[in-house]
């Protein structure tokens, strides 16, 4: 009697284990990926809605915190990957309209230039090791022929066009990315009310955009694009912070 009972229990347990094994094998495995988080950016200086004079060099400083990349105060955020945009508008109504845009056309192409280290040798309005983007846009009109020419210069290098300096090659950059860069240079570098500087700290050049400009405002925007998460390095997120400073 006990032997029969024992045998029945063993058979029942074996049946249960077989059912469990079949059921478990049919359930797909779910991989939990580490999510990425948007960087948080804060202006330390200048303060919002402070008044400044034309052609003043205003010190600025931003602080960045990213759950994956780290903290700027611990030198974990590369300063060379922080982009600060200055956009002049002549009244508050225009500023409000500009701030409502989630993506502004005058930023398309700039991020590619930043991550490709273009700003190491070039600035928007000032000559560094290479010509400024303003100088390039003044020399070349925005035509398909000139776009193709500049794309060739960027990808395969050039020499003697801007004096003794040589343009290094960038064969790793695809045509689509380089064309976006070139179109930005030819369309926006001449905008007198638009400028970009690089870094966590620096100075904001409040260049007067026109002789007729009087007061007006500068929209200052700091942007940082992170490096994704450990599981999804290609899914990058961009954080931003904006302040407005007023001209006397």
What does this entry look like structurally?
The protein is of the alpha+beta class and 248 residues long. It has a single domain, classed as Cytochrome c-like domain (Cytochrome Bc1 Complex, Chain D, domain 2), CATH 1.10.760. It has helices at 2-26, 92-99, 110-115, 133-139, 144-156, 175-188; strands at 40-45, 51-52, 57-66, 70-71, 82-89, 158-159, 166-167, 194-198, 201-205, 217-225, 238-247. A five-stranded mixed beta sheet has the order 2-11-10-5-8. Strands 1, 3, 4 and 9 form a four-stranded antiparallel beta sheet that branches. It has a two-stranded antiparallel sheet with strand order 6-7. The longest helix is centred in the first third of the chain and has 25 residues, at 2-26. The N and C termini lie far apart (103 Å).
Task: List its salient traits.
248 residues, alpha+beta, Cytochrome Bc1 Complex, Chain D, domain 2, four-stranded antiparallel sheet, 11 strands, 25% strand
Report the total helices. 6
CATH fold-level label? Cytochrome Bc1 Complex, Chain D, domain 2
CATH class, named Mainly Alpha
CATH superfamily grouping: Cytochrome c-like domain
The count of strands amounts to 11
Q: What number of structural domains do the residues give?
A: 1
Q: Strands of the biggest beta sheet: in what spatial order?
A: 2-11-10-5-8
Beta-strand percentage? 15-25%
Helix content: 25-40%
Q: What structural class results from the helix and strand content?
A: alpha+beta
Distance between the termini: 103 Å
Radius of gyration: 28 Å
Q: How much is the average pLDDT? A: 86
């Amino acid at each position: 009697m006990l032997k029969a009972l024992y045998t029945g229990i063993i058979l029942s347990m074996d049946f249960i284990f077989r059912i469990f094994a079949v059921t478990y094998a049919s359930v797909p495995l779910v991989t939990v990926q580490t999510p990425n988080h948007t960087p948080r950016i804060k202006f330390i200086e200048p303060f919002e809605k402070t008044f400044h004079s034309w052609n003043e060099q205003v010190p600025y400083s931003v602080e960045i915190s990213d759950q994956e990349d780290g903290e700027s105060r611990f030198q974990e955020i590369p300063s060379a990957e922080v982009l600060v945009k200055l956009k002049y508008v002549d009244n508050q109504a225009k500023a409000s309209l500009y701030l409502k845009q989630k993506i502004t056309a005058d930023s398309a192409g700039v991020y590619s230039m930043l991550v490709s280290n273009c700003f190491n040798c070039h600035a928007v309005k000032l000559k560094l090791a290479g010509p400024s983007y303003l100088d390039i846009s003044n020399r070349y009109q925005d035509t398909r022929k000139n776009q193709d020419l500049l794309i060739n210069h960027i990808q395969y290098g050039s020499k003697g066009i801007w004096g003794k300096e040589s343009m290094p090659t960038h064969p790793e950059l695809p045509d689509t990315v380089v064309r976006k860069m070139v179109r930005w240079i030819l369309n926006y570098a001449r905008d007198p009310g638009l400028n970009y500087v690089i870094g966590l700290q620096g100075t904001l050049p409040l260049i007067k955009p026109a002789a007729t400009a009087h007061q007006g405002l500068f929209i200052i925007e700091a942007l940082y694009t992170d490096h994704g998460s450990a599981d999804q390095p290609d899914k990058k997120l961009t954080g931003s912070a904006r302040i407005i400073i007023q001209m006397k």
